[in-house]
Give the backbone structure.
Amino acid sequence: MSGRILKNYVAGEFVDGSNLFDNINPVDGTLVCQVSEADKKTVDKAVSAAKEALKGPWGKISRKDRCVLLMKVADEIENRFDDFVKAEIADTGKAHSQVKNIDIPRGAANFRFFADLATKQDEKSWDMETKDGKGATNYIVDKPIGVVAVISPWNLPLLLMTWKVAPALAAGNTVVVKPSEETPSTATLLAEVMDKVGVPKGVFNLVHGFGPGSAGEVIVSNPDVDAVTFTGESSTGVAIMKNAAVGLRPVSFELGGKNAAIIFADADFEKAVAGTIRSAFSNCGQVCLCSERVYVERSIFNDFVDALKKEAQAIKIGRPEDGSDMGPLISKVHRDKVMAYFSLALEEGATLITGGGVPEFGDSRDNGFFIRPTIWTGLAEDARCMKEEIFGPVCHITPFDCEGDVISYANDSVYGLAAAIWTTDMDKANRIARRLEVGICWVNEWFLRDLSTPFGGVKLSGIGREGGIHSLEFYSEPLTICVKH
Ligand code: NAD
Ligand code: 6OD
């Protein structure tokens, strides 16, 4: 694929910025393509185009017709399914089965779901009494916020970007999207889809580039951006919020996590092991919802550690097209970060149960960014490796003796995104779930998603909730009209 240059999509045209940067395949370090970085002029033009488009046909189209168009976006993602799969795999090196079954289908489903939901919204009115006896009627008109900046990460590139673009457009906004610099390809394909199905010029704009001092910071600093929706690291959220504070722009943030899995002795052992393997190692541990802290009731602790070790060692690492279960980490920089935690864990007194290093293949994969699935035990609850998000294929297993202890371990975190409880005692599951300081808690499952439900985190894991009506509420400004009779 090298030789290709991915362009920005601004005001309905594919345009160059000023610099080029490399998009590297994490499987073997080869060049996937080059990417045109949007300079300030290009980003500002994208924001102006988005602002202008609100006054054009997009601002006048009926909600129903707007949603029909978004359904066509979903259809066209499906028509180009293989292109999307290939592009996502080239950028991330993810397992083929994951991209085919999760990433790309969810990209299409996000458009279908929010188009359907927006079409079905009811309009309500409230009659009220007045002193003159004639009364008044109040009704609400949901208006778009305006120009929405969508800034997304690399771990589930199309899924997480469309999770925000789809409801923003369904609510009538225009968007300026900046995908991660690590994963620009499916966003560029989405721009082609928008172009093909006839989304009006300026409604969907795409700018490529980095965060600080580049396209990301420039978008958020542009005063014509009316709201910012962001998924990424908590520290990036802080930087974005400072810029969004100028002009008091609303933010919706989905940020980092240090999630706990809690396994009771009465759990279905096989299911709890299989579920925890998924929750610790899916997508090479690069899912914000992954369980990096696993707490196991003491009576089954040794058996659980042995079983998880056996399953972790059976994970097939390799090229996406070889039917592997796990690909590489996203980049060398990220692998260096995860490896630094591997060293730190040993300094902090961890016992290495399995993994802990880089596999050797004896072929071009040795130029990629693979790492072994890793399990530790023996760390103190206040160790840095128990507190900081690592975002790699690694978990620590701690024994616990009672409900009270495990709840306080799980909650003792600056993060509060997700948790998983494994037990056959539903009273206990419900009791504990309600006491966990998280945005979502699975019982005997992990990452099972109903798109209607609120999704987000507490503490450093986020601000606000998206999902179903919660998304439409964030992307809309309700206007109350009170009519006196
Ligand atoms: P990141 O914060 O480094 O980057 C995310 C995006 O923000 C990228 O597009 C980047 O270019 C941009 N960016 C960086 N600095 C910026 C700035 N100052 N201004 C504007 N834009 C800026 O995150 P990442 O490394 O791409 O993703 C991994 C992180 O995302 C992890 O912490 C993970 O937990 C989190 N995440 C959270 C969720 C969730 O739903 N809570 C989902 C996925 C990922
Ligand atoms: O499923 C989703 O909608 C979602 N936002 C998932 C986030 C995964 C984090 O990496």
The domain at 259-450 is CATH 3.40.309.10 (Aldehyde Dehydrogenase; Chain A, domain 2). Residues 96-119 form the longest helix (24 residues). The radius of gyration is 23 Å.
